[in-house]
Amino acid sequence: EQERLRSLADLPAVTLDGVTVELAANIGTPQEAAGLLAKGAEAVGLYRTEFLFMGTGAMPSEEEQYRAYREAAAAMQGHAVVIRTLDIGGDKELPYLDLPKEMNPFLGYRAIRLCLDRRELLLTQLRAMIRAGAHGTVKIMFPMISGMEEWRAAKELYEEARTQLAAEGAEIPAFMEVGVMIEVPSAALLADRLAREVDFFSIGTNDLVQYTVAVDRMNEKVAYLYDYFHPAVIGLIKTVIDAAARHGKWTGMCGSMAGDPSAAPLLLGLGLNEWSMASGSLHRVKAAVRGLNQTQCKAFAAKLLELDTAAEIRQALANFQQS
Ligand code: PEP
Ligand code: MG
């Protein structure tokens, strides 16, 4: 069995009826990018940059960040690397930022909210990412976007970073894709408007579930309610993928649902384009995708969307048989 899974690394993630999806990996350090192509990942779908900021007693300089992002981009040899801007706050602290204690940190001063308030921090990070883009295919992604203002403010800062670098004569790519994570329900509900302006979406189910069902993802007392098969979550995922498709944009998923092979018939049926997961899940998800027929999965997904509970959806997925 292990042998069979390993030999899958070189095969494409293509369905029985010839639909190709992109399987990508989540990383937290540039070193993790090194072995990914050999493991069958075609891209990095989420590079969490928090570790770069958490490992030290001070803010990493533009140069340090540039070196880290460039290393990841180079390791992927032209394959895409989606780098997420700093997602600090919530459960992750940075001593040197001197963040105030909050009653509801997950609803508070976090991620893009903090970065748009501390513009220099975000501008420095964006400059490092854009410079790294000259050494591979870097895509930039903003976390925790809740509406159009935040997206536009972040995009404007990206443009400002480009203008600065160009004026300095730095080597920068002519074009980079810039997208947003969809992990706040308001963003999912505005997906049609966001899709006009962004280059891509990546659905963060870890937070999207927490915010949609109002369940603290760290609280064990209410963990039984935390489920990405919740029908409301599935409905939002469909909304997002459909909106992107209408505007010719692609949708990825980088939350843990993407790494669950039992979710594959549903996600394939909804039309998800890119699946990004812990590298240990790549083989199992690829095996699942290669055994599926998208036309049948579409019909099946339409039926799943009518079910009333997460338990029913899970059960239907477990019983799913292709003809
Ligand atoms: C998510 O929320 O699904 C996600 C991928 O981001 P993180 O787990 O880093 O919050
Ligand atoms: Mg998240």
How would you characterize this protein structure?
GO terms for molecular function: kinase activity; metal ion binding; phosphoenolpyruvate-protein phosphotransferase activity. Mg(2+) binds at residues 183, 207. The structure is a single chain. This protein is α/β, with parallel strands linked by helices and 323 residues long. The chain is 43% helix and 12% strand. It contains 14 helices and eight strands. It has helices at 2-7, 50-54, 62-75, 111-117, 119-132, 148-167, 185-189, 191-197, 205-213, 231-246, 264-270, 282-290, 294-304, 310-319, and strands at residues 22-27, 43-48, 80-84, 137-142, 178-182, 200-203, 250-253, 274-277. Strands 1-2-3-4-5-6-7-8 form an eight-stranded parallel beta barrel, surrounded by five helices. Helix 11 links the parallel strand 7 and strand 8 (274-277). The longest helix has 20 residues, at 148-167. The mean pLDDT is 96. Bound molecules: phosphoenolpyruvate (PEP) and magnesium ion.
What's this model, at a glance?
It contains 14 helices and 8 strands.
Task: Chart the SSEs and their pairings.
Layout: H1 2-7, E1 22-27, E2 43-48, H2 50-54, H3 62-75, E3 80-84, H4 111-117, H5 119-132, E4 137-142, H6 148-167, E5 178-182, H7 185-189, H8 191-197, E6 200-203, H9 205-213, H10 231-246, E7 250-253, H11 264-270, E8 274-277, H12 282-290, H13 294-304, H14 310-319
Parallel strand pairs: 1-2, 1-8, 2-3, 3-4, 4-5, 5-6, 6-7, 7-8
Question: Which keywords apply here?
Answer:
8-stranded parallel barrel; single chain; coiled coil; alpha/beta; 323 residues; cytoplasm
